[in-house]
Amino acid sequence: MSQADIAIIGLAVMGENLILNMESKGFTVACYNRTVEKVDNFLKGRAKEKNIIGCHSVEELTKALKRPRKVMIMVKAGKAVDAVIDQVLACLDEGDIIIDGGNSYFKDSIRRTEYVESKGKLYIGTGVSGGEEGALRGPSIMPGGSPAAWQQLKPIFQKIAAHTDAGEPCCEWVGENGAGHFVKMVHNGIEYGDMQMICETYQMLKHGLGMTNEQMHEVFKEWNEGELNSYLIEITRDILAYKDEDGNYVLDLILDTAGQKGTGKWAAMTALETGQPLTLVTEAVFARCLSALKDERLAASKVLIGPNKTYDGDKKLFIDHLRQALYASKIVSYAQGYQLMRAAAAEFGWNLNYGGVALIWRGGCIIRSVFLGKIKDAFNKNPELNNLLLDPFFKNAVEKAQDAWRDVVTTAVNLGIPMPAMSSALAYYDGYRAQRLPANLLQAQRDYFGAHTYERLDKPRGKFFHTNWTGRGGETSASTYVV
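RE: above sequence
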């Protein structure tokens, strides 16, 4: 008998917890896993006596579903998703819906939407953020794909999603084809940046100011009660104070080599493809790459010389400067992320609701913070806002923090403490506010060695010139193009 409201394929951490979340909100869920022993163990354990139907094949799974059938795939991104899609398609009818809730590359979601729709079915590629706890209690959900599928999924997704204090669901339609997974990719890129900046702040507190874990715990505790209030600041506070059964700080026992799953790299690649300066996120990705060179760094530390000193000024004042620098850098991170979204929306024909995206991120996800309410306000006031830095609230916030921000970056340089993300944020701010950059010299160099031409200040835009710099090059110039 068809009785399940939705099905989930994949019983890893996110899949299991989403099923339990859905069931707790009144939905009957069918589930399947390629290793069917997982299904049996789930039904005997966490799913025992709940409205969850275990299935041992895709055919059995689809037969258990109400129509239109909704099958959500929670498997590892890549070829596995394509393989499961083909399995599921063979068992569905016209108008049924396939949902990919994994961390898929947005261009794969564009391709898959077209493919599934060509078979008469509907496709949703959705970002799901919040980790294990979010999946169970309420994640941030970013759906995109076939618009006709959204009304069928909306009651389920908006009920299981996190909600703001005002009761708004942290889930709303993002856009066609790959828009949902694109917004999730930008979210993860910003997450990379936020985490890296917090790590840079931690290193300055620990090695620059010589603070103990308990002292740093108190700093982050205080910060989490103000404008930096966020999930990542909150968990950093808790991590700093956490001890094992022997009384050792667990943080101090963790090897300093960072892992990554690829979404930050995808964001950096997309920024290069669309010509957008996503400098902070890209530096955060590179910082993880550098951390992975542990053996090389150990060898280099024995031969490469740098400053070996700690901060000798007013520590209390400097800690407040760090807070302001982190806040200003965070503003830049979001400004860059939204620039990337705007460029991609133009390229792929998406009508993104930028204030709505901020609302989706207000709860449930890893980058949730009070800060996002201000972003929503900014785009509500001006939907055509080119850059968050131009919104009065963020403009004033950065101006207020600017002296402290510069002090922190300068001090980091003098102490030999790397701050690639926060210093790149400041460099971006200075570049973005510059009326004139040295790109005129760069264009002259390109024209000198490659006859690549240049535009002139005293002539209309779009008119290109070439100079025979050596007297030997003639008048022939290269064509103008953008890679």
